Each structure stands twice: as structure tokens, then as C-alpha cells.
């Protein structure tokens, strides 16, 4: 198991404990349901449906982004808020599991891990860059030698102007090769930069999820404290 996988496992466990603490306080009593609804309203819509002559009142909950209903016809606010808590935890667990699968890969589906892909890409990039740099160095050395040969020929024998012209043409061709290889080197560096950006994006996503779990953990601790005060009171 990689370090990232261990971190994600800890995050999932923390989220589960946070929800367990919420349920425990729910059983003990003393939960500030309005405060809990205010926190969850960032992600969920709560709608109170008045009762009629043939039906009792109920509370409907839907996810703000997807519009998905969380259960149906909850008999009271605590039940609706508890269902929203559980749905939010499940969504966090699913998102973390998907991210973990993307990072670790899925051998059964023939999907390699993101870390392995990045390492393989960097390996080829280092090999390509080293080969291109070495070839450029050889071409530059050849170009320098050709220029020296041209200068020497001009100084020693002006009568060989045609030969000097041929060597000059060869020098220009070598210069074009150098320009082409430098362009390829820039493309390799761009690809590596894009890979780094992708890795940073995933890292930011992990950090964001960790922050969400930490917030749930803090909320759980607050609820536990409230439950403890209610028990002693």
C-alpha cells in the first residue's frame, strides 16, 4: 500500500467516525438541528411539506448539485438532517475511493496507477532529453569545427571558394537540425510541465477532501461536547 493510499484510508476512517459521533449525539439528544441544517445547506436543499387531511407533514431533501433526492418524505427535521449527513458521508467516501483507484490503478481493468504513469513518462522524458542534448552538443561541436574549417580555407586559399560555399551550405543545414531538435526539446518540457500540473491538481483535490473531513471531524467533536454537557446537565 502506498503512502497516498494509507492517507486516504485514514481519511475514510475519520469521516466514518465523524458520522458515528453525529449519530451517537442524535441518540443521546441535545443536538442543535438548526445549526446542523445550516451547515448541510451548502450542499442540500431542505423543503418542508405541510400535511393535509389525509397525509402528515414531511421534509424532503435533495442534493444541490445533482438534484438527487435523499430518501423521501422524512417524518421530521432530525430524520431529514440525519439522512443528509449520511448521504454526504457516502459521497465523500465514494469520491475518495474513486481518487484512490485513480492513484493506485486497477490491474483487473488494465489501468496502471497514476504514479506509475508519471514515473514512466518522466523516465522516457529524461532519456529523450538527454539524447537530444547530447545530439545538440555534437551538432554544435560539428558546427564550430565547420566554421573553423571555413575560416581556415578562406585564409589559406581564396581560390577554393566553391568548396567553402559547399561547407557553408552544410553548416546551414546543421543549424536547421539544431533548431528542429531544440523545438522537440521544448515540446518534451511542455509535456512534462502538463504532467506536473495534473499531479498538482490531484494533490489539491486530496487536500480539499482532507479539509472537508477535518471540518466534519471538528463538527463531530463539537457535537460530542454538546452531548456531554447535555448528559451532565
**What is the strand content?**
5-15%
Q: What is the H/E string?
A: HHEEHHH
Classify the oligomer: single chain
Tell me roughly what share of residues is in helical segments.
over 70%
pLDDT averaged over residues: 79
How many strand segments?
A: 2
Question: What number of structural domains do the residues give?
Answer: 2
Structural class: mainly alpha
Low-confidence stretches: 17-28
Net shape? rod-shaped
Number of helices: 5
Word description of this protein:
The structure is a single chain. A hairpin with an 8-residue loop joins strand 1 (44-49) and strand 2 (58-63). This protein has a two-stranded antiparallel sheet. It is built from five helices and two strands; from the N terminus they run ααββααα. By secondary structure, the protein is mostly helical. The two termini are 46 Å apart. It is 76% helix and 5% strand. The chain has two domains: 3-110 and 213-232, no CATH class; 114-200.
Task: Itemize the secondary structure elements and their pairings.
Elements: H1 3-28, H2 33-40, E1 44-49, E2 58-63, H3 77-104, H4 114-156, H5 161-232
Antiparallel strand pairs: 1-2
Compact summary:
The protein is mainly alpha-helical and 233 residues long. The chain has five helices and two strands.
Amino acid at each position: 500500500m502506498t503512502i497516498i493510499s494509507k492517507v486516504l484510508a485514514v481519511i475514510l476512517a475519520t469521516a466514518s467516525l465523524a458520522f458515528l459521533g453525529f449519530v451517537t449525539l442524535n441518540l443521546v439528544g441535545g443536538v442543535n438541528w438548526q445549526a446542523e441544517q445550516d451547515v448541510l445547506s451548502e450542499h442540500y436543499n431542505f423543503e418542508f411539506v405541510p400535511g393535509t387531511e389525509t397525509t402528515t407533514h414531511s421534509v424532503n431533501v435533495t442534493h444541490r448539485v445533482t438534484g438527487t433526492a435523499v430518501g423521501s418524505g422524512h417524518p421530521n427535521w432530525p430524520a431529514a438532517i440525519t439522512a443528509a449527513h449520511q448521504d454526504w458521508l457516502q459521497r465523500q467516501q465514494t469520491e475518495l475511493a474513486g481518487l484512490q483507484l485513480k492513484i493506485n490503478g486497477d490491474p483487473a481493468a488494465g489501468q496502471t496507477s497514476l504514479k506509475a504513469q508519471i514515473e514512466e513518462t518522466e523516465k522516457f522524458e529524461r532519456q529523450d532529453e538527454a539524447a537530444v542534448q547530447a545530439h545538440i552538443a555534437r551538432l554544435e561541436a560539428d558546427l564550430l569545427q565547420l566554421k573553423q574549417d571555413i575560416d581556415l580555407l578562406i585564409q589559406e586559399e581564396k581560390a577554393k571558394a566553391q568548396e567553402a560555399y559547399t561547407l557553408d551550405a552544410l553548416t546551414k543545414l546543421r543549424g536547421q537540425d539544431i533548431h528542429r531538435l531544440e523545438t522537440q526539446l521544448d515540446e518534451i518540457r511542455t509535456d512534462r510541465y502538463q504532467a506536473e500540473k495534473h499531479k498538482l491538481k490531484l494533490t489539491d483535490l486530496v487536500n480539499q477532501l482532507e479539509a472537508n473531513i477535518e471540518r466534519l471531524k471538528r463538527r463531530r467533536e463539537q457535537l460530542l461536547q454538546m452531548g456531554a454537557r447535555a448528559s451532565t446537565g
